[in-house]
């Protein structure tokens, strides 16, 4: 066999082995627990999509540019990721008082 063919076969087997490992990890993660990630968005239930506003007040038209006529748009709570987004919080702590206390 030509060395180029052997290299391509080895690369192909490597890709297949990697795909099998990824599939096993995904299958293990989906069978654990209730099947729903505890960090999933409560608004869209982890789908990342919500009903578009044009469908709520629609008069039978095609749709809008946001949903491209599908009636579903990216969730406004999670940004379409399906998981909750961390809320940035700034915590300020006052400096300690450095005065001498009488004993």
- How large is the share of residues in beta strands? 5-15%
Q: Which descriptor suits the 3D outline?
A: flat
**Intertermini distance:** 90 Å
> How many extended strands?
2
Compact summary:
With 103 residues, the chain is mainly α.
Key terms:
flat; mainly alpha; 103 residues; two-stranded antiparallel ribbon
Would you kindly provide a written description of the structure presented here, covering whatever features stand out?
This protein is mainly alpha-helical and 103 residues long. Helices cover 32% and strands 6% of the residues. The chain contains two helices and two strands; from the N terminus they run αβαβ. The protein has helices at 3-31, 53-56, and strands at residues 49-51, 72-74. It has a two-stranded antiparallel ribbon. It is flat and about 90 Å long. It starts with a helix and ends in a 29-residue tail after the last strand. Mean pLDDT is 77; it is low at 33-37.
């Amino acid at each position: 066999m030509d060395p180029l063919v052997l290299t391509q076969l080895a690369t192909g087997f490597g890709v297949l082995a990697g795909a099998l490992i990824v599939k096993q990890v995904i299958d293990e993660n989906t069978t654990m627990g209730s099947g729903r990630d505890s960090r999933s968005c409560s608004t869209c239930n982890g789908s990342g999509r919500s009903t578009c506003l044009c469908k709520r007040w629609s008069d039978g038209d095609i749709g809008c540019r946001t949903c491209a006529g599908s009636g579903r748009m990216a969730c406004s709570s999670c940004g379409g990721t399906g998981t909750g987004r961390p809320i940035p919080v700034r915590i300020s702590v006052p400096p300690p008082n450095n005065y001498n206390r009488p004993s």
